[in-house]
Specification:
Layout (H helix, E strand, L loop, with lengths): L1 H21 L3 H28 L8 H22 L2 H8 L6 H4 L5 H7 L7 H14 L9 H27 L1 H4 L3 H8 L14 H10 L7 H9 L3 H29 L6
Helix pairs in contact: 2-7, 3-7, 3-8, 3-12, 4-8, 4-10, 8-10, 8-13, 12-13
């Protein structure tokens, strides 16, 4: 309990300092959010153009697909907001020798890296996701209940950890190779497939995004449970299990990477 309180206090300090830093560059913050919202707007327009010609896609209506798309932005946005600093490890922190600073401070290196930055422009992602869900809900027939609401609140942080665990694992490769940003990017971009129903893909793609790089559990499967109420053990339960496994793998690779780390410089 004492360690948890200390971690929370340290996290609050890091967040406070990061907010002070960002307030010096308000223009960057506003432009970042506007840019993201415009990008998502054009994605939704693309879906609307398709469904103007095709009433449904493999049995999925436009409202259902937009709902899944909106839900996918919630865990992705939370990971982007809280743990985006992991990208820097693979891109430049290790290669430039800047990782040494984390080893000289009396807190866990992974915790320090994860909480050091707060990516406020991720609020655009979260706002867009919430807006899309709110817009489509009146057009959907969803049976609500206390259990379903509790399961939804439970699954969102675990879905977020799938993103985080994959970033930890791929970023940690840099401890051996000095740079691993491209590896992280390659894995991370698979999440684009998870923004749509997995049933529209062939078996190979479904298997990859379900069991190999399981981004389908960050969006489609939890959203499918919300829409249909079916198979909570698979849609929700397996999301929790997979997120724990992915995080455990990521932390294991990180710990091994710290032992192998050798300082580097430009």
């Amino acid at each position: 309990m004492r360690n948890i309180k200390r971690a929370l206090r340290m996290h609050r300090i890091f967040v406070t300092q990061e907010l002070k830093r960002m307030m010096e560059y308000k223009g960057d913050f506003v432009v970042g959010i506007i840019g993201f919202l415009l990008g998502q707007f054009f994605n939704i327009m693309f879906l609307w153009i398709i469904f103007a010609q095709i009433p449904n896609l493999m049995g999925w209506t436009l409202s259902q697909i937009v709902f899944i798309y909106g839900f996918s932005l919630i865990p992705k946005g939370l990971d982007h907001l809280l743990f985006d600093n992991l990208w820097a490890i693979g891109h430049w922190t290790v290669a430039k020798g800047d990782f040494d600073k984390y080893l000289t401070r009396p807190i866990d290196t992974l915790f320090h890296v994860m909480v050091e930055k707060l990516q406020i422009d991720a609020l655009g992602e979260l706002l867009m996701g919430i807006a899309l869900i709110c817009v489509t809900l009146p057009q959907l027939t969803i049976e609500w209940g206390l259990v379903k609401i509790l399961l939804i609140l439970l699954v969102i942080p675990f879905a977020t950890l799938i993103y985080t665990g994959i970033k930890i694992a791929t970023a940690a490769i840099a401890f051996w190779t000095k740079r691993s940003g491209n590896v992280t990017y390659m894995f991370y971009m698979v999440n684009d497939f998870a923004k749509y129903p997995t049933t529209i893909y062939n078996r190979g793609v479904r298997a990859i995004i379900t069991y190999v790089i399981p981004f389908a559990f960050t969006a489609f499967y939890p959203a499918n449970y919300i829409l249909t109420g079916e198979n909570p053990l698979f849609n929700i339960g397996l999301t929790v299990v997979i997120s724990v496994i992915i995080m455990a793998i990521g932390i294991f690779i990180w710990r091994r990477g710290i032992r192998a780390y050798e300082s580097a410089g430009s």
